[in-house]
Amino acid sequence: MSSEPSGRRGTGHAWRWALAGLIAVVALAVAVWPRGDDGETTGPRSTSLATGVPDDLRAAAGLPDCPSAAATGNGPLAGITLECLANGRPVDLAAALAGKPALLNLWAYWCAPCAQELPYLQQYAQRAGNAITVLTVHSDPDEAKALSRLRGLDVHLPGVLDADARVRTAVDAPAVLPISVLVRADGSVAEVVVRAFEGVDDIANTVAGKLGVAA
């Protein structure tokens, strides 16, 4: 029996080492590949195509849908389209508020006075019922943190994302938070309240005095 030539033996050994290395790499990749509890590979969470915010985060916040356009919007908010926090859909702000008095509360997830005020606004909205629209306006681009903050506060009001502070600019409000904008049914601004409300009665008295809505 003739022996294998030395050149071929070297080539064979190199090929076997290369094959062994490839098998080791594949085994390692399989070992670290993410898997679900049932052994199936898991992909990324479902997200809103418009914003990239996970759908489960929106669902956990439990926010009601924003008001739909009721008529042609007028006043300083006309032409402003924002994103609804509940589902990511666009909201023509002035059109959505048309025909009914509204309280827009400008806030941000990092604002401590806002966190104290938001539960009062929810209580006021429940007390006032359909007489007025209460809408929160998150005046910061971080939508995910807004949703998490509202969930933590157990506040479930309709809200929009105003990443560029367009509402504040439109009503010529100062660069502070919180701010509440009281809007008449015709779209005109009755008052810009540059302070935090101290309670439900404070909100009710202010709104009654400026918009004539009793609650």
Short description:
This protein has 215 residues and is an alpha/beta fold.
Look at the structure and give the mean pLDDT: 83
- Percent helix: 25-40%
Which class best fits the helix and strand makeup? alpha/beta
Largest sheet: 7 strands, mixed
Shape: globular
Pick out the low-confidence regions: 1-11, 22-50
Distance between the termini: 105 Å
> Strand sequence of the main sheet, in spatial order?
2-1-5-4-3-6-7
Q: Which percent band covers the strand fraction?
A: 5-15%
Q: What is the ordering of alpha helices and beta strands?
A: HHEEHEHEHEHEEH
Give the C-alpha Rg. Answer: 28 Å
Q: What is the total tally of β strands?
A: 7
Work out the helix count. 7
What does this structure look like?
Helices cover 39% and strands 15% of the residues. It has 215 residues and is an alpha/beta fold. Strands 2-1-5-4-3-6-7 form a seven-stranded mixed sheet. Strand 6 (179-183) and strand 7 (189-193) form a beta hairpin. Helix 4 (112-128) crosses helix 7 (200-211). The longest helix is centred in the N-terminal third of the chain and has 27 residues, at 6-32. The N and C termini lie far apart (105 Å). The model is unreliable at 1-11 and 22-50 (pLDDT under 50).
What labels describe this entry?
7 helices; about 220 residues; 7-stranded mixed beta sheet
How would you summarize the topology of this molecule?
Blueprint: H1 6-32, H2 55-61, E1 81-84, E2 90-92, H3 93-97, E3 102-107, H4 112-128, E4 133-138, H5 143-153, E5 159-161, H6 166-170, E6 179-183, E7 189-193, H7 200-211
Parallel strand pairs: 3-4, 4-5
Antiparallel strand pairs: 1-2, 1-5, 3-6, 6-7
Helix pairs in contact: 2-5, 4-7
